Amino acid sequence: xxxxxxCLTAETMAQNNALFRQYRSxxxxxxxxxxxxxxxxxxxxxxxxxxxxxDFHGVDSILTVRREVDGGHWKGSETDxxxxxxxxxxxxxTHIDIEADLPGLPDRLGIVQSARAAGITVIAxxxxxxxxxxxxxxxxxxxxxxxxxxxIAARPTGIADFRRLLHAARAHAEPHVVLGMGSYxxxxxxxxxxxxxxxxxxxxxxxxxxxxxxxxxxxxQTLFAHGKTGSVTRYFAVAGDPVAHSKSPEYHNRRFRAxxxxxxxxxxxxxxxxxxxxxxxxxxxxxxxVTVPHKESAARAAATVNEGVTATRACNTLIREPDGxxxxxxxxxxxxxxxxRDRLSxxxxxxxxxxxxxxxxxxYALASGGVPVxxxxxxxxxxxxxxxxxxxxxxxxxxxxPLSAAALPGDGTELGVYGDLIVQTSSVGMHPDLEGDPxxxxxxxxxxxxxxxxxxxxxxxxxxxxxxxxxxxxxGSGMFDAQADAQYRLFRTVLP
Length: 496
Ligand code: ATR
Fold this sequence. Notes:
single chain, alpha/beta, TIM Barrel, Rossmann fold, 3 domains, eight-stranded parallel sheet, six-stranded mixed sheet, 18 helices, binds 2'-monophosphoadenosine-5'-diphosphate
């Protein structure tokens, strides 16, 4: 399993030593970023190099003085930087990171030779701050010829670049660390196992991150199965865009750990879903959660789908079958119903606000539960289309709950029996639209049950108004948990 390397990014050695002590039980190695120390601390190290490692007992330590062009903060000259690195070779570091980006200058002014002579492991590194180079394979070979460990940190600009990084890492037999920077690279920091990486870099929470996408050591160890005790045999993922704030990685990894399973769940920012499915087959991914905006693409990508996916044309779960094909399931329907199932028979009718994918799942869930539904949308024609399409599908399935369409209710609108349950599925009121209310003029009578499927924030403006009017309210957290639980149970079916 990849070791966890804590990047020490503070301005003073005292702060760095404190960070090390704080995370000691979670890390296998540290990287001292000398370029981030303030000038007087750098001067101290020049005078007394051993002060740089004196506190890092029992773990490997990397000496790094990163240039600005590589994302570092070194302000001095290149001559001074090389001189400082050379001087610090006697400090007791086990590793040294040397930027090997200058073709024809493999041994940066004799450092590699001196480091080797001192028994220090040389990490030959290349940083590409805004792209992934085309020649990854030859570049890794070149780096391995220079140092003991080849390191490439490059910034993927989409899932295709991520795949190229993975292919190059897997094809390279020599010791290496291949990392993707930025939001499209986060998964490489979490699934270094699949890349064959020796270690992964992490930064303490709440301090300056050494590079974008870093995760705190305790999270890497406990949630993402890194470090000496980690072990991973199966991969799962969530695919979406944005995905950074998804609660799913924490939810599923916690459950895998609690059940003692060697499975790892990884978030992927996905721009191109077909490209992502190629990656899924290569890794392979045993199960995939799919979120906005890829649920319809997932429904098309699945080899087989269940009734719920056919009806909603949206798939939030893909399960890998033994023959490698993916089966599509929609657990949003079950998740949606779980919060109101015990009350379903009391609703004489329901109003669904919105006519997008989320509305489709809610309308299908309610109608197949026998509840007549009025679909209200800002764009009436979309509501009418949804009603016509779902109506036909429900009839094909032998169900006959009446569906109708209307504009959004305003001041004075009487919803009648359709007011028993009002379901809010539009994006209005969702973070960051914290003030939004899709029906600001509609006056609640107090007898309605109002269900907003949004879970961030937990209390949306429409729910607040409904509560003040005396209505029963339901927010989206229960739906999230229930669809995630249903998904987890599906994931368990493909684990040994
Ligand atoms: P999803 O698939 O997640 O449901 P979607 O297909 O983009 O997302 O649908 C978003 C829903 O929110 C639509 O019903 C949209 O109404 P339109 O069909 O008229 O676009 C609704 N919506 C978005 N912004 C809105 C706003 N400011 N007021 C009212 N409805 C809004």
